Amino acid sequence: MRIARHQIVKPAVWVLFLVLQSWLSISGAEVLHGRVVGVHDGDTVTLLTPANQQVKIRLAQIDAPESSQAFGQRSKESLSAMVYNKTIHVAKETIDKYGRTVGTLFVDGLDVNREQIRRGMAWAYRKYLHDQSLLQIEAEAQKAKVGLWSDAHPMPPWEYRHSGKTEVVAVADTFGRERTSWSGKFSCDSKHYCKEMASCEEARFYLSQCGLSRLDSDHDGSPCESLCGK
Length: 230
Description:
This protein is α+β, with helices and mostly antiparallel strands. Helices cover 35% and strands 19% of the residues.
């Protein structure tokens, strides 16, 4: 990766160049580049490469709120504002079990993964963390009560996803405020699709309490349009 001496390099581009050079020299990481043509949530995008291939990218070391969680939509909007329809570079780390490329995104010299944490739009993902400085950035965001940290008791998405496997009482205890309205009515382990829901109330329970995000296909916060309407 070379830059001719006669070229005038913008400061942000120069910083990006140095960061990517560091990635390559230290970790031997492969660097992808292309235009972001899709933002799926706060930690997943689709990249269109110069070869006209679409590559789904999962942002490394962070975990954003699920679409059905508080701040899920805002996290997606934050990521979209930074990268959608822009040319980015991806320092690739691995391929996950879902076939997604896992890596760190850079746009105009900005480390996007780190910025999502700084804005309070994602957690440092403990299970896959190798840059401990992200914990400090998370702690600073929490102290400043920005983004998801404005909630007194935000639930990490990895716990939220797991809660969908428990009985209704356990889920209600976890979510606290929902105990009275949901307890005893539904359980999280028997239904998976809109066609199985008996009412809009039941669909809302599965979306908000069980993390069944497939019920909200258009990500507008309302499940099963045939039951709950637009």
